[in-house]
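Give me structure tokens for this 283-residue protein.
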Amino acid sequence: MLNFLIILDIKNYMRLSIVSALDESNRNQEDVIKKFTSLCEFLKPLNYKGIELSLLEPEKINAKRIEEIQDSYEMEIPALGTGNTFIRFGCSLGHISETIRKKAIERIEKYIEFATKVKSKVIIGLIRGRYDFESNQKKEKMNIKSSLKECCRLAENYNVELLFEPINRFEIDSYNTISESIELIEEIGYENLKLLIDTYHTYLEEDPGFIWDYLEEITHYVSHLHLADCTRRAPGTGHFDFRTFLNIFKRSGYNGFASLETIMKPSFEEVAQESSEYLRSVL
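Here you go.
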């Protein structure tokens, strides 16, 4: 019996979640609730413990009803994606315009308010923005630091954790690597600012001969993981070494979420099911 319990604990140390949108800007409240309920119903039997929500306007969602549903299914919302705020609204923490930076901080506060109600974390990724011809990377980084400090202060007031995500150079102009992002986290100096590592961005930006040893050293900074293969499709469809990656975190005692953030083809349902089976086979 003891051996069985040990094996069970090893298999369940890392909680699996998956990214999904609720399309709250284009749906009425009842449709949003139905969408979230159907996600819980589908994912629960597949051993998912959480649903990471990619949102645009969280203030339009009835957080109390979402909380009731997630509790009834024993599902968590480990993180809130904010990237659509930059893609759709143009909000950017690093923008040369102070007005746009303030708008981005205001939008982050809406995510923080929602996060405190559903016990979630808030991701700082694409909302950092891209610099334009009137700016440069040095100015952008200074603006990001200033804006991020304000976001951390707001999040601290709500007891919410922020997740800083290194993103590859083809999508964003600053803080592309894990080491750069850790330097920023240390410089900002807020306890509620942690690191999110995404396997797809890791594959594109990190030295393959160095990254595994480096990850062993910095796991204590990490509070959330994103999983996608080198093709940005489901884990196991490319050649990223998920076994090595995940076992580094297992050995470190990581007990947070690993969240699928992939191109959902051939379908969300197939990706969810096949990824759950694959990831459990490599642990």
